[in-house]
Fold:
Amino acid sequence: MAGAGQCMADELRRVAFVLWPGTHPASVMPALAVLRSANRMAESELYRAECYTLDDQPLVSPEGWHLPARPWPGEGVDNAVIWLVADGIAQPASIPPGLAAQCRNLVREGLPVGAIEGGVYPLAMSGLLDGHRCAVHWRMIDDFRERFPAVTAGSELFAQDRGRLSSSGGQATLDLFLGLLAEERDADLAAMVAEELVVERLRDGGEAQRVPLRNRLGSTHPKLTQAVILMESNIEEPLTTDEIARHVCVSRRQLERIFKQYLNSVPSQYYLELRLNRARQLLLQTSKSIIQIGLSCGFSSGPHFSSAYRNCFGITPREDRNQRRAQQAMENVARA
Structure:
């Protein structure tokens, strides 16, 4: 795929997916679905996608279905863009030196390299992610950050940073490839492919991964979980701390002790930060007005919202949105 320059409308782009031993074939299916659908919608071979393995074993899922693949030939495949693929279970321990060299050659030639889910590990081992940002699945992010401190590992859905592309896996891979299709070929074609694949909306790469509540909280305390679920379900019309305590059948004092013990916060402060983080997501990823966003996140007025936002993030909502738009404009120019 591109990201470092747009393809001509009818130019054939070869894409090579290199799957590590033990990787579930489903890891690459969202990407293949987008590319194959693009060819059908365009009634032309825009992409020629091939899957490769690093051993002589066929790609067979535990359920018994096969993904056609060939052993990696040990050299570049007709200047194909290389995607390194592994799942969260079969995390790669190394990358063949020849493959790492091929990836570095691609970068020198101005072509991007990509990684899907656990594929960020071998890409980082090649040194190509040093000083770059990448998206890492929430299950792996702590381990990845410890092993590769020179890489900026984020918990967003996917990332594009100066020719390094990465997906946290699953549906995020579909989002990434639809976005790349719009950049490389045509936004209308990408919209047609999204419709064929029954994609309700195209998610922005900067959108945070949906991390299970118990993992986000670092606790399985039932009353804490119930309280946070209530908060997340009542963003537009916030509940009081007394109301939350009553709903989860504890006293206000007990609820405050639980939040202090497990989150080092009080319920009201945690709730406020939850609403502000939701507001920031809407601010950076939608075209809704600042007033609309503030009201939808439980703030009674524009000044109240702006003041709380600045106290939390050190910047006003308007300044934050303007900075984000300027950054996106610069990234678009860099990819052009």
